[in-house]
Amino acid sequence: MSKLSRNKQFFLSLLVPVIILIAMTVKPLLTVLTGETIYLQTTPVDPSDLAYGDYVDLEFEIETVPLDLLDNGLKKQLGDDKDYFNFDSDKSVYITIKQNKNTNIYEVLKVTETKPRSGIFIKGKLAYYIDQAWDNNSSTKEAHINIPIERYYVEDNTGTHLEKLSQKGKLRAEIKVRDGYAVLRGITVID
Length: 191
What we know:
191 residues; 2 domains; 5-stranded antiparallel beta sheet; 28% helix; alpha+beta; globular
């Protein structure tokens, strides 16, 4: 093998990982630059990570969905499964959302297995569903959907304050959404 071809191979072996790392940033950057800004109501807890410091672990109201907002195919799959926690929990779903004009917070319109062709939607994973009849004499069944934007890092010792604001309903998350992909931009306090 000639020395020139070895130099090319070496250069390519260095260049390929760099290209892969740069490509991984395209989707988040494109979402931040061109995505739709939405606001979601949050319910955080205050954990800490030794490597990264304090963060607020966010849960959004749109992650808990009554089964009547699921499309018929998803309802049938859940209805056929008698073990609430033993179904395909890696199933990708799309949460179509709409803005509540009074609160400016986005709420669930419907949840589907197929990607919507229009409107604002967020891609998530169907985690589990709960039949609440055993808990409070209600016949409500809810599905829980994980949205992969759950951590918001904060300054040390500020997570507890954010948690208290959230419990009072005074915290919301600013999120950029583009084609189902969501990027958490910040947390704001609601007056």
